[in-house]
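seq as requested:
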Amino acid sequence: MPRKRLLLFFSLVIVSFILMTYQSNRKISNPLRLLKYPVNAANNTIHSMCSSIKGSFKKMRLRDEENRRLREENGNLLMERQRYRDAALENARLRDLLFLKEKERKYVTAARVIARGNERWANTLVIDKGSRDGIEKDMAVITPRGLVGKILSSSDSYSSVLLINDINFSAAIRLHESRTEGIISGTGSKTCILKYVSHEYEVKASEMVLTSGLDSLFPADIPVGSVTKITKKGAGLFQNIEVTPFQDTKTLEEVVIARR
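struct tokens:
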């Protein structure tokens, strides 16, 4: 037993000696190295945060650029669609004018509206055709929908049009169903008034009004408008009849000129 204890004691001494020798041979550790770990960790964290923030801003900038590009493309597409729509509408109007040209034997020329009247001549238009194109004063101005007015004056390249709703305009007309004749005049508003129709004649609401050709100005059977209001009481010898023209003069872009 004592022998075993002695052997264990010597073993512990040898191990202790070996450890002391190993420790003495190691270099003394620099205590400042212990401070580098938290500093490096902080630097790494800050660098990571900066990279993350830069990445976020970069993504935001790219997203803004993409949104701006998409908005521009969307705007271009809308403009292109509007151009196609305008072209389609113009083609439809020109087809109608071509049909009217073939139908109207007294066709002179077609023209574009290039200006509208001022305060003094509010119910007038200016078109881009004149006397060089065969246009003369008092010629009829029409569209596929109906009567627009008449030529007020013309120069070589331009003409002025007096619209149907002007107070100075008048034309001989005939009611389509009753064949009653009268004179239509402008009122300065959207509607016209049909004059000189006696109470003995039955006029129906919505009855079509056509030119009669009896005024030596307008060709016969041009659509003018429809009856929208009839007043018999207090109208004197004649009925008070309101007519709404078929053609809205505020939306005119092209017209046709016809001779008597």
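The chain has a mean pLDDT of 79.
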